[in-house]
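Comment on this:
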Amino acid sequence: MLKRFISYYKPHTTMVVWDMLASLLISVIGMVYPIVTNKMLNIYIPQKMYSTIVIAGIIVLVLYIIRMLLRYFVQYYGHIIGVRMQSQMRKDLFAHLEKLPFRFFDNHETGRIMTRITSDLFEVCELAHHGPENLLISSVMIILSFIYLITIDWILTLIIFTCVPILVFVTMRLRKSMKRAFEDRRKSNATINAAVESSITGIRVTKAYTNADREIEKFKKGDDEFVESSGRAYHAMALFFSSTSFITDIFNVFILIAGGLFLYAGRISFGDYSTFIVSVNLFINPVNTLIGFMEQFQNGASGFKRFIEIMDEEPEPESPNARELTDVQGVIEFKDVTYSYDPTKEVLHNVNLKLEKGRKLALVGPSGGGKTTLCHLLPNFYRLEDGNGSIMIDGTDIRDLTLDSVRRNIGIVQQDVFLFVGTIRDNILYGRPDATEEEIHEAARRANIHDYIMTLENGYDTEIGERGVKLSGGQKQRLSIARVFLKDPAILILDEATSALDNTTEVLIQQALDELCKGRTTLVVAHRLSTIRNADEIAVVLDGKITERGTHEELMTACGTYKDLYSLQFRENDLIE
């Protein structure tokens, strides 16, 4: 993990070197004051060297001005290094997320992922900046102060430094418990973010069902967990700092007693004793800095660990010899396809289907039968394991084709339309970002949405809000259809695209969909069976198997599941009317 962390410093090597040099100079300048103090007390003042006293003071002042400038450099450019490293990690993480399979997002809440991109990486940024500087400055100060103390009196120095092994032992023992506590705190923070993201996204549902109290209770539960884990973390931190601070305080006790006895015995002078006290503080301060740095290290290390956890997730598998899907005809075939999300339960079992170029196949059946799973398998959103059959496009197994080329040639219109924050133009352009303005308008016309767009004050530049909240369900659906028109794929998947619409809107949508299907191989999942009567073939999917196939008339004549579903649906419609 350390090697991977250090790799992010490589693009900033020059700046890091200058930052470390500046930090080193800060440490060296810090040693000037005790040296001058010793000279003042032992030589300059007793010998009344007044001009030398003034010159020494001016030199110290100039060095302090230089140190001020060096500290500015370290603070500013050190943070710049940290921010740039954080930026690169964030870009790497986001790019990797885009490559992960659907399974990952099925099992990880958005709020938890957001925590790793934001607050976790912020802590990593702080560690990246302060870590090397604190380690270098503190280490150099400890070494230099130790060497200088030995030059004053080596026996007194060794007596005082007997506390160091105790300090190291206590630090190592308490650090482990603090590390575990801060990792638990980070997980609790992710829980809060997940709850907030879920509640805000579903705020309209919450208000519709007057369940604000329930959401508050769910948030309170996550918040209480965070408070509890924070309590454990701060208990470990308080125990760590109070114990280590007590040991560093012992240094002063040793100086007071041992130094006083040495002064009384005439082993050292008053000037040396005073210098020793100043120099010991130069040793204790960086020790305290290193101790204080442990909290930041734990935060940054646990944040980087969580970053690595996602980076180590396997991306969508793609054959190393995968080739591009070109000149697509649109012949689709499912051969002996068996699939399960959970190894204990099959969703599809030995499914065989073939769809010729430009033909429309409708999948019908009860919910949970496997219809949507078939639609997800065709664009390779979920990968078939070897031995579980194959899915072919134009005679080639999709596992032997690049993911991008397969998906580039498949258009999908779903019941649950997702629109991005931005304008109407932005969302239509998502189908093909390099499209011209005229192509955008033509796609909107074919989707029966252009006339509505032109009634808006800002037309295609109208902001639609988060997930298209400013549009009706039918308008959002037509925008998604315009997006597919612009993409112009050879294969089309319609996953219950009209099931949530009123009758009037459904007519508009159905006209747009009929236009969209022309000349394309189409796979339709239908809830309203009236919309797929003109399909070239209808397949009934029941418990993961194809139980019936044929045209509408053939299936009605067969008097099987399809006829029962059709009769039941129209009987329900009559009752509603």
Q: What stands out?
A: The radius of gyration is 35 Å. The first strand starts at residue 332 and ends at 339. The beta strands are 332-339, 348-355, 360-364, 390-393, 396-397, 410-414, 491-495, 521-525, 537-542, 545-550. Confidence is low (pLDDT under 50) at residues 572-577.
